[in-house]
Specification:
The complex is a heterodimer of chains A (263) and B (73).
Chain A: H1 3-6, E1 11-13, E2 16-18, E3 22-25, H2 32-42, E4 46-53, H3 64-67, E5 74-77, H4 85-99, E6 103-106, H5 119-131, E7 135-140, H6 144-153, E8 157-160, H7 174-183, E9 189-191, H8 197-205, E10 210-213, H9 215-218, H10 223-243
Parallel strand pairs in A: 3-4, 3-10, 4-5, 6-7, 7-8, 9-10
Antiparallel strand pairs in A: 1-2
Helix pairs in contact in A: 2-10, 4-5, 6-7, 8-10
Chain B: E1 7-12, E2 15-20, H1 25-31, E3 40-43, E4 46-48, E5 63-71
Parallel strand pairs in B: 1-5
Antiparallel strand pairs in B: 1-2, 3-4, 3-5
Classes of the chains: A alpha/beta (263), B mainly beta (73).
Chain lengths: 263, 73
């Protein structure tokens, strides 16, 4: 790609600059080698990770860090499985001690089958984490008012769901995602719901700063191919957004000149 | 008096485990065969900074959480 295309193509979250606008999760893969290969193919620089008890009965089991090096990728620890502010703070304090990162992904979920963001609990946890010095990228519902409140509290990125986690349904409410983007001064990412490359491209065309994908890559028949497809989708969507699409009109407009025709 | 060594009873990740008395956090991590660089430790709900593992001595009844990073979304 020439300079015209690549200029200004990075993004910044909480003072950290990244080239790739695709963040990938590390969950649900069949094994660690596939995880590593898919992440490599995705071109992602940030990966989400979970914090869990070590298995005392199998201390030498291979660890994520052996395959996905924290020296190469920025680990974004999440609060999956936390249902209270106290659990979220404890989990991320442990993550900070394990890896030394302040940049975290807050998610406080409601029960199945929606796993929809529990916003009152999310607000409470965000306040506690910000008070504890964390830089909080927050998973939230597609609600412009809630998003603005999270930004005003001091969150560093707003991450509304496109559709329920793992559903693969794509962006269900593009209008609200666009309204969140229009009102935000911090990065907005679609997190959750992406099913295929088209969905990632669509989210980027709406003006998202980045997209977070896990299930759509990890559970694809060929995760490495899908990771590469997501990379291309995110890039295509971003370029199209920057290029400025033509207006939609309910009529045809000929692509070839209508003058100079032979008679 | 016979000198029966005192036994240390700890709760580690929800499991009751016993060790010889005088164990430190560093000693515990080693005894569990864990890689000290890849875990984080919480003792009675407070973070134990890695730099202090060798200085923190455990006592019976202590509850510890030892965690690491795994795949997640």
């Amino acid at each position: 790609m020439d300079a015209h295309v690549t200029t200004e193509d990075g993004w910044i979250v909480s003072g950290r600059q990244f080239g790739s606008r695709l963040i990938v999760g590390t969950g649900k893969y069949k094994d660690l080698p596939t995880t590593a290969a898919a992440i490599e193919a995705s071109g992602a620089e940030i990966v989400t990770v979970a914090v869990r008890r070590v298995n005392l009965s199998d201390p030498k089991a291979p660890m994520l860090q052996d395959y996905v090096s924290p020296a190469r990728y920025t680990y974004l620890p999440n609060t999956a499985g936390c249902f209270t502010a106290d659990d979220a703070v404890r989990t991320l304090r442990l993550a900070r001690e394990a890896g030394g990162w302040n940049l975290v992904k807050l998610e406080v979920l409601g029960p199945p089958p929606t796993l929809y963001p529990d916003m009152p609990a999310t607000f409470e946890a965000a306040a506690a984490l910000i008070a504890d010095g964390f830089e909080v990228m927050v998973y939230c519902n597609d609600d412009p008012i809630a998003a603005k409140r999270l930004e005003d509290m001091g969150c560093v990125a707003i991450m509304p769901l496109g559709a329920p986690i793992g559903s693969g349904l794509g962006v269900q409410n593009p209008l609200m995602i666009q309204m969140i983007i229009a009102g935000a001064k911090i990065p907005v990412l679609v997190d959750a719901g992406v099913g295929t490359a088209y969905d990632a491209a669509f989210a980027m065309e709406l003006g998202c700063d980045a997209v977070l994908v896990n299930s759509a890559i990890a559970l694809a028949d060929d995760p490495i191919l899908m990771a590469r497809a997501m990379k291309a989708g995110v890039e295509a969507g971003r370029l199209a957004y920057r290029a400025g699409r033509i207006p939609r009109i309910n009529a045809a407009s000929p692509s070839s000149p209508v003058t100079g025709l032979i008679r | 008096m016979d000198a029966t060594p005192e036994l240390l009873i700890l709760t580690v990740n929800g499991e009751a485990l016993s060790f010889p008395a005088g164990l430190t956090v560093a000693g515990l991590v080693t005894a569990l065969a864990l890689d000290i660089r890849k875990v984080a430790v919480e003792l009675n709900r407070e973070i134990v900074p890695r730099s202090t593992y060798a200085q923190v001595t455990l006592t019976s009844g202590d509850s510890l959480e030892i965690v690491h990073f795994i795949g997640g979304g």
